[in-house]
Write a structure and sequence with these properties.
With 340 residues, this protein is of the alpha/beta class. The protein has eleven helices and 14 strands. α2 links the parallel β2 and β3. Helices cover 40% and strands 18% of the residues. The relative contact order is 0.14. The termini are far apart. It folds into two domains: 213 residues, Rossmann fold; 101 residues, UDP-galactose 4-epimerase, domain 1, CATH 3.90.25.10. Strands 3-2-1-4-5-6-11 form a seven-stranded parallel β-sheet, with helices on both faces. Bound molecules: UDP-4-deoxy-4-formamido-beta-L-arabinopyranose.
Length: 340
Amino acid sequence: MKVLVTGGLGFIGSHTVVELINAGHEVVIIDDLSNSSLDVLQGIHKITEILPEFEKIDLREKPRVEDFFSRHNNLDGIIHFAASKAVGESVQKPLLYYENNLTTLVYILQQTTKLNRQNLIFSSSCTVYGQADEMPIKEESPVKPAESPYGNTKQIGEEILRDTCKVYEDLNVISLRYFNPIGAHESALIGELPIGVPQNLVPFITQSVAGIRGELSVFGDDYPTPDGTCIRDYIHVVDLAKAHVVALERLMNGKTDQNYEVFNVGTGKGSSVLEVIQAFENANGLKVNYRIAPRREGDVIMAYADTTKSNEILGWKSQLTLEDAMRSAWNWEKYVRKID
Ligand code: WQD
């Protein structure tokens, strides 16, 4: 099948392109290269020995979107990753986030609803739950008021899709609510490339151990958790990528009894910050230097997924462990920094 992947040179997008190609699909990538580079396309080529079609397009430019779809009117599916995703930046630049994350979604939907049938996977996030009241978090858990414009764009994006699917019965959509994506492809040819100082835990750990950053600051050890540090559901990016292929094939094979569905994508297991540090040290035989620092504004105490729906209805389950992710994350860091 022919699949458009927007944001296909990003962290999760590039790993998903690899798994789509591995599953035998033809892939067309759109990316504006604002948070990626053509090196990622070369990495995909080296891994799969296939060079997917790529177009550099800023999806905020409506005429460019219309032109693309006029030239690609035979798409069997779309996976829409393209969005800005830095929580902190979204607080400083809300209009950039509302324009880039929502206007682009509307432009794409205006094109897909012209087609007689379209299948779309939307990149959503566990952020929509905020601090959920019950663990593990189910898809039916209430969506809480967003704690950042980024999180709000994911909530609003889901509402746009749900409302559009009510009117266009030939538009089939699955929103995947990711928990915390980490790790890299086993080849170490693609991975997470945060620009500037990493805000997320795992890339900060790998850059700290590589000597690019100072010691890790653990943002608080006085939370009501077993070891006092926050708990998250860290999912290997390759498992997450495979979930996208399974979800898109579910739509393309017409397996759904409703045309809008939501699935949590996580491991179903919570790990604390200190447990992540321990997993890195166990996996790589290296010490992570850290200090306990004050809590970070906006952090939820605990978030991990109830994966029953994904396991039993989607037919997907994560396979890789936290240590697998730590090993691949470190191998990627060594590749990028040319460390032996
Ligand atoms: C994880 C834990 C921090 C850095 C974010 C986005 C979310 C989603 C996933 C896109 C927390 C602690 C972190 C550090 C630390 N992204 N930490 N020192 O905040 O759970 O989720 O990424 O969809 O939308 O919000 O991930 O990796 O930033 O933090 O102690 O230097 O690690 O306090 O407990 P988070 P994270």
